[in-house]
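[step 3/7] fold_predict: job queued, chain A
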Amino acid sequence: MPQEPQAADPHAGHDMSAMAPAEQANPHAGHDMPASSPAQDPHAGHDMSAPSAGPPDVPTSADNPGRPPEDPVPAAALAGPVHAADLVFGAEAMARARRTLIAENGDIHTTAVIVDRLEAGSGDEEETWLWDIQGWTGGDINRFWWKAEGEGEFGGDLEEAEVQALYSRAVSPFWDVQAGVRQDFRPDGEDTTHLALGVQGLAPYWWEVDAAAFLSTDGDLTARVEAEYDQRITQRLILQPRIEFEASAGDIPELETGSGLTSVEAGLRLRYEFRKEFAPYVGVEWSRAFGDTADYIEAAGGETEETRLVVGLKAWF
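[step 4/7] structure written:
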């Protein structure tokens, strides 16, 4: 019996090599992959045996690698004179100019006159007038300071006047210590000379204060404190409260002054500044004497308490 032929292979004659499963490509093929190593220590190279005595080792902008490099200062830059202008204008001329600059900008000498009160008042059947003027000349630290004030009645004699000549020295940005002499003038001839010692300046909350003690040639010790404050209602309209205290360490019968608190004056003045240097005002002022001083005034037929309407001028130049 003849042998049965084998079934024909349907893929015979076909190249099946392309159909074979290909090995998946390695995405890291061709890359150098060294053996894995432990993470790098951020403190490598630092001595951690003891805490640093200096500043902490924190990177700053100077350690920024992107910071533009800075070249060292050329030696020629420090080889010339201290002031380069000396090469152009001459050392002598520039030294003179620098002295002028210091004098005009750091050692300025000024002079001022302040008319604090120039006023007329109307009280109980009495028309009065007074002046209160002061000024200075000098620099920021040392000054010659003068003060003058007086009062009287219209149609009558001068009641009293005084002039002070003071050396003033700044001891802080807002306070001066002042020392000098005060001379009183009175129509009865009881003129008196005093030594004066006080302070003047700007207290907290913008109160302008002038306080002084006076020792007369007769050994009488008195004191005075004045304080005033500018309350701006508008840029030109200003309300100024003002208060003044006077005291004495002992009785001074010839001056009708008793020991202790002798008098108080308190007032309100409303001024309008047409210019900073020119400001008329109107106001009201109350005054009262105390203690033995009031007794002296009553014995002489005077009033111990008074209220006045005032009109005046504040100016400076």
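[step 5/7] annotate
Confidence is low (pLDDT under 50) at residues 1-7, 17-25, 34-39.
Residues 50 and 160 are 81 Å apart (CA to CA).
exit 0
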